[in-house]
Design goal:
It comes from Lampropedia aestuarii. The protein is α+β, with helices and mostly antiparallel strands. It is about 45% helix and about 15% strand.
Length: about 180
């Protein structure tokens, strides 16, 4: 899943075994796609350049600490679901895998509003990975990070390429959420 992204980012870290990934996280009934994902992330958190800062994909090593952080911060917040697993973030806005969904749906939410209003980012972890691969190919390779107009708005050609590529793999509603996370 993540090999192409790691290649574009020139990340040389090795994957870890699924047994190692499973032993590093403390989640009962962790979905198999999550274990496979963490195995492929490897030993270090992956940082993907994003428009403003970074999109972080947590390694199994950092994973448990991040879960505790979100759980502790949200104990008083009644709408934090015990089935939500934070697999990464964009500037502290969580990327969440819902372990109660059969295909391990991926959601995105902005923090700081007092409530968690999740928006479906991808129907599966695999789709999410494909979307990140498209992002890396366009942002880092084709556009070489040159995606801004003089007024700091995103170039319409970049947005068009991104939207058209994402439309091939994601439902329209998910593409809209992805573009919101970009902007």
């Amino acid at each position: 899943m993540l090999e192409k992204i790691k290649e574009i980012l020139s990340i040389k870290q090795e994957t870890i075994s699924q047994d190692t990934a499973r032993s590093l996280i403390d989640i009962i009934d962790a979905p198999e796609p999550l274990i496979q994902w963490l195995s492929q992330v490897g030993s270090n958190t992956i940082e993907i350049p994003w428009t403003a800062e970074l999109l972080r994909i947590y390694s199994a090593k950092d994973f448990q600490e991040k879960q505790k952080t979100y759980f502790i911060e949200n104990q008083k917040n009644k709408n934090w679901n015990k089935d939500w697993i934070v697999i990464g973030d964009i500037i502290s806005n969580p990327i969440i895998l819902d372990k109660s969904s059969l295909k391990s749906k991926i959601f995105f939410s902005f923090h700081g509003s007092g409530n968690w209003n999740l928006a479906l980012l991808a129907p599966s972890l695999e789709n999410f990975c494909e979307a990140l691969n498209i992002w890396c190919k366009l942002f880092l390779v084709k556009y070489d990070r040159d995606i801004y107009e003089d007024d700091f708005s995103l170039k319409s050609s970049f947005l068009s390429d991104l939207q058209n590529s994402l439309n091939q793999i994601l439902p329209v509603s998910c593409v809209e959420v992805f573009l919101t996370a970009v902007d």
